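Data deposition worksheet. Section B asks for the primary sequence of the deposited chain exactly as it was used as input, without tags or linkers unless they were present during the calculation. Section C holds the resulting structure in token form. Section D is free text for depositor observations; keep each observation to a single sentence. Incomplete worksheets are returned to the depositor.
Section A, Depositor: J.P.
Section B:
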Amino acid sequence: MLSLHKLIVLSILLWLIWIVFRVFERRKAQATVRAQKNQHSDQAHKNAGSGGSDSDMDMVECTQCKAFVPERGCDRENCPVRG
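Section C:
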């Protein structure tokens, strides 16, 4: 028969199992978030590495040839914006 002592022990065991389950779920969620952050960081690193430096990405309009060229200057020989 179920006694008060057995009911208390059973409730404590169920509570402990529930706590352990919550800890494992929390670790799993944190690992997923970490993996997503690493994936985003790796993707940003790849994009930054393949894009060149920031100064190469700043474009200005050349007054002579009316083309957009890097801020460092135009490659044409007679251009006043020549770098």
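Section D:
The mean pLDDT is 79.
The first helix runs from residue 4 to 50.
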